[in-house]
């Protein structure tokens, strides 16, 4: 199946995507993705670019449900930077592309914390994704300790620069960056306030706002805070875990984004 290149998919201006982390088998993946496809075909989504990121094992099934030219982008949660070789247990960018992925998540805080992901490996992975024509979705974010020390901006700008410095303007324009403060992610996280996010996004916006394909926010996004988060300057999307693990939850978030002034302005421009 020759899948539409991610570069040919319009995108945005608002991106709303979900990673399912280590959840969902084949049947559940197919059911979710089928429902999503039907919804998008029926309702349209002017101004919003959806993306879903299942487990490696379910990427091919998700692609099968979406077909080759779906407006929904399909991603993987990680990939190795080498195309192949003696890397037991790893999956390459070439392989996820072969399975139907168009996007790859790189440097999620859970990968950095539990699997030794470093700035150096995120850099290699961004390069591999670009080499294969996939959208790198680079995740950055500081811990609670770094935030308490008042070092958030310095820390996230270093993570971003470490992974992205040296890219050409054309390569940079294909990258998505998700700012996901570690203290805001998952069951043990607490939602960030709009106020807390102003400075990080001002800093990221200055460095990467125009240069990249988009700046997303992630970490305890839910139906109650999504609209306010989208309203923050330089935020051009949401990267969602738990609140989008059910299809109705994800569809509601897509609808909220589609009705947001940032999406409406672009759709009617
Ligand atoms: P959460 O996950 O929305 O469940 O906090 C976000 C993430 O890990 O990207």
From TrEMBL:
Pathway: Carbohydrate degradation; glycolysis; D-glyceraldehyde 3-phosphate from glycerone phosphate: step 1/1; Carbohydrate biosynthesis; gluconeogenesis. SUPFAM superfamilies: Triosephosphate isomerase (TIM) (SSF51351). It comes from the Bacteria. GO terms for cellular component: cytosol. Its EC number is 5.3.1.1. It catalyses: D-glyceraldehyde 3-phosphate = dihydroxyacetone phosphate. This is Triosephosphate isomerase. It holds the Pfam family TIM. Homodimer. GO terms for biological process: gluconeogenesis; glyceraldehyde-3-phosphate biosynthetic process; glycerol catabolic process; glycolytic process. One of its GO terms (molecular function) is triose-phosphate isomerase activity. It is found in: Cytoplasm. The lineage of its organism: Bacteria, Bacillati, Actinomycetota, Actinomycetes, Mycobacteriales. Keywords: Cytoplasm, Gluconeogenesis, Glycolysis, Isomerase. Gene3D superfamilies: Aldolase class I (3.20.20.70). The keyword Isomerase applies. Belongs to the triosephosphate isomerase family. Its main location: cytoplasm.
